[in-house]
Amino acid sequence: MAAETAVRRVRHTAPRPSDTERRNAAAALQRALDRRDNGGAAGQHAN
Q: Where is region (Disordered) located (predicted)?
């Protein structure tokens, strides 16, 4: 079995979002999921 060279992967991460940005993103995701899920938590159908 041939020896393979190890490749080091450097992760260039973006700066961490602030707590407010994380909350806003989570809220936006939840709204999108609610809209997709048969009208959302309120049970209203947007027709």
A: 1-47
25 touches 17 (CB < 8 A)? yes
pTM as predicted: 0.47
The rounded distance, in Å, linking the Cα atoms of 17 and 26 is 12
Q: Which pair of structure tokens corresponds to residue 2?
A: 């041939």
Q: Report the alpha-carbon distance of residue 43 to residue 12 in Å, rounded.
A: 42
The angle subtended at Cα 38 by Cα 34 and Cα 41, nearest 5°, is 45
42, amino acid identity: A
Which stretches does DSSP call E strand in the chain? none
**Per-residue pLDDT tens over the stretch 22-35:** 999 999 999 998 88
